[in-house]
TrEMBL record:
InterPro entries: NADH-Q_oxidrdct_subunit, NADH-UbQ_OxRdtase_su21_C_fun, NADH-UbQ_OxRdtase_su21_N. It comes from Filobasidium floriforme. This is NADH-ubiquinone oxidoreductase 21 kDa subunit. Keywords: Membrane, Transmembrane, Transmembrane helix. The chain crosses the membrane at residues 31-48, 60-78. The keyword Membrane applies. The keyword Membrane applies.
Amino acid sequence: MPSKQPLSPYPVIDADPTFGRVVRYMRPSDYATWAAAAAAGPAAFWGLERVDPSRASTRSAMKLVGFLGVSAGFLLAYQRSSFRFMGLSENASEAKKDHAELSARVKAGQPIYGETDLTDYVQSVAARNSTWSQLKLSVMPWFNLVNHNYHGVDTSKYGEQK
């Protein structure tokens, strides 16, 4: 069953990109967002500690807030990069990079979305579980870690013959 196409202002590159592709296609602005979110948690905690100091040591609490800031920053950067794959934000440079990368795979005779040992049924289950999961990363972080052929785009644009 084909993936539902969203009403998006930009072309859909991949409705279910793998984790590695999303991280590889991150822009410098995504890394800046990640760093800002990572610094915001400890900065806010430090500021609140200056306003109303506690009597206990805040060292372990600062470590926890720092870890949560880094984690939240990564999820935010991942989601921003995923939105470009789904066509929900401007994605011209990603579209060019995607076309060049996947066309080269086709010309080299490699599978377009990578090799896998999974059966078609298991691949379709993995795709149904992770497609559009980037929209709800705040509820439950779920990443596509499986190579499959269910990405919601027409692969003939890469030169692949069906």
